[in-house]
Amino acid sequence: MLLDHLKRAAAEREAQALTRRRRIAHTACAPHQSVGPLGETPASLLTFCSNDYLGLADHHALAEAMADGARRYGAGSGASHLVSGHSIAHAQLEERLAQWLAPSIPNARALYFCTGYMANLAVLTALGSAGATLFCESLNHASLIDGARLAKADVVRYPHGDVAALGDQLAESKSALKLIVTDSVFSMDGDIAPLSALLALAETHDAWLILDDAHGFGVLGEQGHGVLEHLGLVSERLIYLGTLGKAAGVAGAFVAAHELIIEHLINTARPYIYTTAAPPAVAHALLTSLDLIEGDEGHVRRAHLARLIAQLREGLGALAAQAGWELGDSDTAIQPLIVRDNALSLALSAALEAEGIRVGAIRPPTVAAGTARLRITLSASHTEGDVHRLLDALTRATAPFTQRDSASVDCKEAA
Ligand SMILES: *Cc1c(COP(=O)(O)O)cnc(C)c1O
């Protein structure tokens, strides 16, 4: 019965071009990556789909720091943080992260988690108790959606970027604790939430702002300290989540917030308490990652990334206009080319791959039905030549779809 059911579900996914398949990388995360099945010679692909925005994931200094951490602390932590797994490397990392966020969040402390997914479950379930209300942005990341589902709080959703609608919802609410929950940089769209306006609403309505800066930490702000530095926001009402497996190039996440909030998470958040602490070596490597982000190298990498983003947007804008597609309104390293149709997004992704270029086709349920897209992400490790190659290949891949009714396609079909 179960297997019959699953077979039908798989056939349905296949019919809607929604089947997901994993690919095997044979080399480190980098623009040029070898990809292919086990036991076969992998193909070398120029990739535009990682979240390694600064190109730190295969940085020799981080690999060396990870090895150094393993020599000092071994491979595993051995237990959860509250039992015996909390190491000096974790504590040093939390202290550094708290210092980074303290200019934006007075009295901030930081708490390190194994993953951003767990950190979001932890914050929303620990703070979203019965009687509270979570006001959730409609394009929030799946981990925030799942956290809201698990929380005992009431959940209200507001439309993407709609500050006025949220204001109305807050004004009507009689809830004892109001928590606004949003991505800062939207993961599939690349646009930035109107955080100044959201924070002003929080101040007006005695609410708190939980913000997930997975795609801003390390890349945004002069020092790479994230979206709060970028926008110059300061408030004790901010509850900040940054992830450390994207721009920071390693793994894990952290929450920075008022010390009483952090103390509450340590004591009550089940996704924090009931899991083995990340290997101390990972936290040790992250200390080096923070040095790189904040140092000269980080500045150079962010400046280079900004140039690549401008170059890509210029090319994609022309292409989207010609094909009748939509280029997302994004200034970040996430550039979505919204082609709408699931099968078309897959066909374009396949056409690029035939030219040795890897770009992810993002389909429902990750994005809304009818908004399938190529999600192109840039890294500071890309060169201008890489971006040029992508634009060239995309122009060729797009041609059959922009000239659907023209004679040239008929000729090709006849040939
Ligand atoms: C990737 C991501 C997460 C999850 O972080 P992990 O460390 O990968 O678990 C959370 N929120 C957003 C917006 C993300 O993009």
TrEMBL record:
One of the Pfam families matching this protein, by short name: Aminotran_1_2
InterPro entries: Aminotransferase_I/II_large (IPR004839), AON_synthase_class-II (IPR050087), AONS_Archaea/Proteobacteria (IPR004723), AONS_Proteobacteria (IPR022834), PyrdxlP-dep_Trfase (IPR015424), PyrdxlP-dep_Trfase_major (IPR015421), PyrdxlP-dep_Trfase_small (IPR015422)
MF annotations from Gene Ontology: 8-amino-7-oxononanoate synthase activity; pyridoxal phosphate binding
Catalysis: reaction(s): 6-carboxyhexanoyl-[ACP] + L-alanine + H(+) = (8S)-8-amino-7-oxononanoate + holo-[ACP] + CO2
Modified residues (N6-(pyridoxal phosphate)lysine): K246
PANTHER family in the record: 8-AMINO-7-OXONONANOATE SYNTHASE, CLASS II AMINOTRANSFERASE/8-AMINO-7-OXONONANOATE SYNTHASE
Subunit structure, interactors included: Homodimer.
Protein name: 8-amino-7-oxononanoate synthase
Species name: Cupriavidus plantarum
Gene name of the record: bioF
